[in-house]
TrEMBL record:
Pfam families linked to this entry: Methyltransf_25 (PF13649)
Origin superkingdom: Bacteria
Single GO MF descriptor: methyltransferase activity
InterPro entries with a match to the protein in the record: Methyltransf_25 (IPR041698), SAM-dependent_MTases_sf (IPR029063)
Descriptive protein name: Class I SAM-dependent methyltransferase
Entry-linked SUPFAM superfamilies: S-adenosyl-L-methionine-dependent methyltransferases
Example GO biological process: methylation
Natural source organism: Streptomyces vastus
Signal peptide region: none
Gly residues biased stretches: 225-234
Keywords, ordered alphabetically: Methyltransferase, Transferase
Region (Disordered): 215-234
Keyword flag Methyltransferase: yes
Length: 234
C-alpha cells in the first residue's frame, strides 16, 4: 500500500502475484500466532481494519470466522477480487489507505502485515500515526515487516522487481511509540516464502496497544534471525 506512483507500482506487482502470494506465505507460523494473540484480546463482534489485505487469507478469513467485522483495504484489484470471493463474510475495498478516512477510535484492532515496505519513511510514519488514532483506547495493533535500515532500494520479491523502504527494529519501535502505541512484545523470526525465487528473510512482529495514558512501552523481545534485508521482501 502506497501513495501515487508507489501505489500503482505496488498494485501492479500484486496483480501479477495474486494467489501465488497467498500460497508462498501460508505456512508462516509467526503470522498465525499473531492472529491468535489478537483473537484473545477482542470482544465479540469487534471491528478490525486489515491494511493491505491481499487475498483475505489468513488474516481476514481468521477474524471473520471468529465473528468479527473486518474491513480490508488493498490497492490491487486482483487481490480485492480474490479476497471478496474467498472471504464473503468480510468487506474489501480497492483503495490507497492514505486516502481512506479513519475516524478517531473507530476500530477495535488494526492489522498491518508487510504492507508498509513500498511506502517512503514519511508515508509509513504518517500512516502509523493515523492508524493509532483510528484505534479506540485499549485497542490492539499488529504490525509485521522486514526490519532493515534501508530506503528506496531495489530488490526482487518473488521474481518481481520492487523498491523497498524500511526501518531498523529500534527505529520502528520508536516510531510506533511516538504514534501513541505501547509495544507489548515483539517477535523476530526468519521466514522463507514457498516460492522458487524466494530466499530467507527476517521478519519482525510488533504487538501493540493504544492506551489513553501511555506508560513506557513494555517489551518482551524474542529474537531469532538477523536484521538485514535479503533479496526478497514479504
Amino acid at each position: 500500500m502506497a501513495g501515487g506512483d508507489q501505489g500503482r507500482r505496488a498494485a501492479a506487482v500484486f496483480d501479477v502475484l495474486g494467489p501465488v502470494y497467498e500460497k508462498a506465505f501460508a505456512h508462516s507460523e509467526a503470522h498465525l500466532a499473531s492472529l491468535e494473540w489478537l483473537l484473545g484480546r477482542l470482544a465479540p463482534g469487534s471491528r478490525v481494519l486489515d491494511v493491505g489485505s491481499g487475498t483475505g487469507r489468513p488474516t481476514a478469513s481468521t477474524l471473520a470466522a471468529a465473528g468479527h467485522e473486518v474491513l480490508g483495504i488493498d490497492v490491487s484489484p486482483v487481490m480485492v477480487e480474490l479476497a471478496t470471493r474467498q472471504v464473503p463474510d468480510a468487506t474489501f475495498r480497492r483503495a490507497d489507505i492514505a486516502e481512506v478516512p479513519l475516524g478517531d477510535g473507530s476500530f477495535d484492532a488494526v492489522c498491518v502485515y508487510f504492507s508498509l515496505l513500498q511506502m517512503s519513511r514519511e508515508q509509513q510514519s504518517d500512516l502509523i500515526r493515523r492508524l493509532a488514532r483510528g484505534l479506540r483506547p485499549g485497542g490492539s495493533l499488529v504490525l509485521a515487516t522486514v526490519p532493515a535500515d534501508v530506503e528506496d532500494v531495489e530488490v526482487v520479491f518473488m521474481g518481481q522487481p520492487v523498491r523497498a523502504t524500511s526501518f531498523a527494529t529500534e527505529d520502528l519501535v520508536s516510531l510506533v511509540n511516538r504514534a501513541g502505541l505501547a509495544v507489548e512484545s515483539e517477535h523476530h523470526t526468519m521466514f522463507t516464502p514457498a516460492h522458487a525465487d524466494a530466499v530467507a528473510e527476517p521478519h519482525v512482529f510488533l504487538y501493540c496497544m493504544r492506551e489513553e495514558t501511555r506508560p513506557p512501552a513494555r517489551r518482551d523481545r524474542s529474537r531469532r534471525g538477523g536484521q538485514g534485508l535479503p533479496g526478497c521482501v514479504g
